[in-house]
Amino acid sequence: MNDDLHYPNLEHCAIIQGAASTSRNKPPNVTISAECLEAMDAPLPELYDFNVEKRIQGKMDNRKDPEEVLAGIASKSTRDSTENFTVFQREAFKKMKSITNASDDVCVTILSRTGFKLNDSI
Fold this sequence. Notes:
Radius of gyration: 38 Å
Structural class: mainly alpha
Number of strands: 2
Distance between the termini: 79 Å
Strand content: under 5%
Order of helices and strands: EEHHHHHH
Largest sheet: 2 strands, antiparallel
Helix content: 40-55%
């Protein structure tokens, strides 16, 4: 039996052979169950083309190595978020950062919203 051939509509059907015919032109007497006859008339499922899987695999193949991405981020120089601040604003920023241990961006955003009022920011 060839394992490459697979007929999903017929896999649960049984074909029972009948007695051989004496006439050459007459087909052999074969009994086929109603389930098999229905399965033979059922439409075959559409072939699945795996487009979604191929697109995802393509994206995975084109994705950069995470270590390479992290190295690129680490190598970029970070800008000083307080470079345009006045002396008073820079002092307020340093105090807020020492009290809250928040990131530079968070401290700058909050201080900017409150007009650099340290008590309101904290």
